[in-house]
Amino acid sequence: MNDTSALTLHDRTTAAGVRALRIATWNIHGTVGTDRFASPERIGRVIRELDADIVALQEVPLGGSFAPSALPVLREMTGMDAIAGPTLDTPERRYGNAILSRLPICATRALDLSFGTREARGALDVDVETDGPGTALRVVATHLGLSARERRAQIRALIAAFDTARMPVLLMGDINEWFVWGPALRMLVTHFRAAPAPRTFPSRLPVFALDRIWMHPVDRLLDVHVHSSMLARVASDHLPLVARIAREHY
Hints:
- The chain is an alpha+beta fold.
- It has six helices and eleven strands.
- Helix content is about 25%, strand content about 35%.
- Strand 1, helix 2 and strand 2 form a beta-alpha-beta unit.
- The two termini are about 20 Å apart.
């Protein structure tokens, strides 16, 4: 009888034939890198490095007179479908979240997470077919606010939305929580259970785990790691966070 006690989760799931999806989230800082140059093409090259099936992006230029949309460049460079989720939408500037997907997107929703007079925030909420009709995965990409009170209100709104879901939920994005045991994280961990949280910010020398990936049910989240290539360290002030999730229960 083989002894599997020393095997990693990756080894065990591979040996068991678990079919996995590769997922990523990344705050692209308006495509402006640590060298202060804006380059959607450089963002696209890093996304190709990730080789992910679904990518959530935050701080994405989406058009207007202030800056052109980055999505046409990213679509062309990656061959992925791209869905915009603007949180700021004026003639001068469209800006916010986006989701790139190799898999079919069958429904799209926008969640308004704005709080008082603070900067407009939201979540892009899509259903992705992982293996054809009837296999939808709910993917929520968000970028929470800078105020602790604001984040608590936003997380309550998110959790209320998840409670109505009848499918697996993947939440990812820039949570903006600096404190490991902050109230915002405690609320999310209570709902999703704990998940690995590698440091992603600042990209040159990461100190804070601002970017997160959670999965419900938690047993489908196989592993989480930071993508820290030389190009990624320059392309944005955040590093991409990458995970594998099982397509189905195992």
